Target: Phosphoribosylformylglycinamidine synthase subunit PurS
Amino acid sequence: MIAEVFIELKKGVMDAEGEAVKKALRLLGFKKVKGVSSVKVYRIEIDTNSKEEAEREVREMCEKLLANPVIQNYRIVLKE
Amino acid sequence: MIAEVFIELKKGVMDAEGEAVKKALRLLGFKKVKGVSSVKVYRIEIDTNSKEEAEREVREMCEKLLANPVIQNYRIVLKE
Model:
């Protein structure tokens, strides 16, 4: 099974990368860009057929390694 | 309009970050992890109501700044 983990900054946390990209795009002439935010995605292949098991494992991975719960939110999307 | 740009490495290009995450997860005891790949997403807010214009602008942004066409593929998803 494939799990996709979307990790993004919580509201109110400064997104330095997004800001830098926005500035660069506007310098390049893309004046219609109003905002940019950056999201990190990990696509994880797990050796199980159980959605419940996959979700439980991936949630634990997020809490132990992938996400920083102080400043980031995560969302898990499971695919067959 | 919001455009999400998904940028990932082409097949055959070494994904150092994904490999590092995979190793770390396995060291933490997640033995069922078979592979990890990393994807970068930029969520771009554009001041237009035209899907065609948004798509054209974002494609140009990818080609000029966001993606490296030698090693990366990108995919654009438009949202109202």
In short: The first strand of chain B starts at residue 2 and ends at 9. The interface with chain A takes residues 4, 6, 18, 21, 24-25, 28, 30, 32-48, 57, 60-61, 64-66 of chain B (CB under 8 Å).
